[in-house]
Structures are given as structure tokens and as C-alpha cells.
Amino acid sequence: MLILVAAGFYLKARHSFRAREAAARQHSAAPDFSLPQLNGQSLQLSDYRGKVVLLDFWATWCTPCREEIPHLVELQRKYRDQGLQIIGVSMDDSPEPVREFYQRFQMNYPVVMGDAEIGERYGGVLGLPIAFVIGRDGRISVKHIGATDASVLEQDVKALL
Amino acid sequence: MISKWTGRIAVSVLISALSTVILLNQAHGQATSLPSSHLINPEELVKVLQAAKGEKPLMFQVGSYVLYAQAHIPGSDYVGPVTSELGLQQLRRRVESLPRTKFIVLYCGCCPWSHCPNVKPADDALRTMGFTNVKVLYLANNFGADWVEKGYPVAKGQ
């Protein structure tokens, strides 16, 4: 019984923390960045203004991140024509494992190599995965910390399309 | 109509298959299988670090450099993810000349504890080398939530 009560408090506190985090970042302008993609070309976030952007901070060795990737690939395929653009920001230390992963999982959206600067500009990326859903106006609509159910991400995206 | 449904079924099967591959690949290195005697809580570690007396541990971050550069425990060294053989070699090289009784703390905090792929292999590697005083920092959610947000000491950069 005590364990159940403790678990309840823990989950409530965790939910509250995540809600505060989400609220703090909501509706602020998504910081612009220019970072190298896996093919060497740079990607500028502001070039995607007018689209709904799902910015996914992840790493190849991060299990919950890896579990999300097939769902993100499906989301991109399903809503591409309606204006969804997913952008992956890899927090791996080097691009080699990311390239291999990209091919293996047939990723269908661009991935850039992140750095400490982008992490800090997005409020500190000190745990993975973290996803930001950005509206067509370039403002952050939602921030999800930790593994997020695919249906939740889909709802967030659909609400902005 | 048939091809549309066939396509949807194929996508679902592909997602399930890829998810299974991911889970099987990661299952062996789960942090949750570490015995509690190998762990140290953030509060305990802070007390050790702030105590006027007692041995201070050598601390290694075995996660991502990008995350280390944003925030890490002052005095800790970056080793990198030990999910690869390269990372493990780096860790072994870093400690090979040390006395096997040296107090060592390992931490990652890139993923939730139940999914951390790094701390268990790092702990295993040091114990296999004969180190007897190794502790793994228990970070339930991630380094941000369980260390930085708690107001514990943080350093940035290299």
C-alpha cells in the first residue's frame, strides 16, 4: 500500500515537473540554428517557417529515442503532404553511428549533428529524448521530455496542421 | 483498396520488427540489473563531495560529450558512451594504472535509468578489472532533472 502511495506521489510530481517544463517553453519562438546534416550540407531551422516542425533531440545509443524513430518515420510519411517536417538533432559524439542508423532504419527526414550550444539555446538538453513541436509561425507549441507515445505526438502535430 | 490496407499492414509489421530489434539489442546492458550495493544516490554523492574529510571519488561521465559540455559534475571526466568497444577501451585506459581500491563514481543520466545503456557495461568493465570501490550514480530520470534541477554543483564546458 505504502509503495502504491509513494508511486502515486512520484508519478504526480513527475507529471507536474513535465507540465511546468512544457508550459515554460510554450509559445516562445523556437531558437533558430544552422547545423550540419549527415550529408555535410547545413540545415537552417528558419528555412522551414510555414511548416509544422517536430524537432527531435535523440542519440543512437539512447534506447527510448531508438524506439521512437520508426514511429517518427511513419508520422513523417503520413503528414508530409500536409506540411509536417520532422528534424532530428543527434546528440551523438560523431556522425558515423548516426549515418549507419539512418540507413538501417530508413529515416525519411533530415538529421543534423547537435552541439552544446543548441542544447543550451533550447533550455538545456540534459536528458534524451526531448521533442519540440513548432507551429507554422515558428513558435514552440509543446515540449515533451522523455519517451512520448506516438499517438500523443500525432495529436500535437495534427492540432497544428 | 487492397493495396492500401496491405501497405498499412506492412508498415505496422515493419515498425514492430524494428522495435523488437532495438529492444533485443539493448536488453543485455540494462542499468536496472545493477545491484543496489553498486549504487550511490545524488544526495549521498553531494555529501561525499562536500565533506571536509574522506576520500574523494574519481568521477567519469560515460554518456554523450554534447550533454557533458552543457552540464557535468565538477571534477568529473568525460569518457563517453561505453556501448561501443571504443568507449570501453577509453574507460579501461583511463583507469588501468590506478590502485584497484580507488573510489570511482560512474554516471550518465542521458536517458531514464530503466533505459540507460551505458552505466552497466561501465560498472562491469571496472569490476572485471578488479576495482572494488566502484559506485554508479542513480539518476532516475536524467542528469537535468535529478542533478541540475536539484541545485547540485554543475560545471560547463570541457
Overview in brief:
Chain A has 161 residues and is α/β, with parallel strands linked by helices. In chain A, 42% of the residues lie in helices and 21% in strands.
End-to-end Cα distance of chain B: 58 Å
Largest interface: A-B, 33 and 35 residues
Mean pLDDT of chain B: 87
Q: What gap, in angstroms, lies between the N and C termini of chain A?
A: 45 Å
CATH topology description of chain B: Oxidized Rhodanese, domain 1
Strand order of the largest sheet of chain B: 1-5-4-2-3
Radius of gyration of chain B: 19 Å
Total helix count of chain B?
6
Based on helices, strands and strand pairing, what is the structural class of chain B? Answer: alpha/beta
Largest sheet of chain A: 5 strands, mixed
Helix/sheet category of chain A:
alpha/beta
Tell me the number of strands of chain B: 5
Q: pLDDT below 50 for ≥5 consecutive residues: which ranges of chain B?
A: 18-28
Q: How much beta of chain A, percentage-wise?
A: 15-25%
**Strands side by side in the biggest sheet of chain A:** 5-4-3-6-7
Helix share bin of chain B: 40-55%
Enumerate the spans of chain A where pLDDT stays under 50 for 5 or more consecutive residues.
9-17
Write the layout of secondary structure elements.
The complex is a heterodimer of chains A (161) and B (158).
Chain A: H1 2-25, E1 34-36, E2 42-44, E3 52-58, H2 63-79, E4 84-90, H3 95-104, E5 111-113, H4 116-121, E6 130-134, E7 140-145, H5 150-160
Parallel strand pairs in A: 3-4, 4-5
Antiparallel strand pairs in A: 1-2, 3-6, 6-7
Chain B: H1 2-26, E1 39-40, H2 42-50, E2 58-61, H3 65-70, E3 77-78, H4 85-95, E4 104-107, H5 119-128, E5 134-137, H6 143-148
Parallel strand pairs in B: 1-5, 2-3, 2-4, 4-5
Helix pairs in contact in B: 4-5
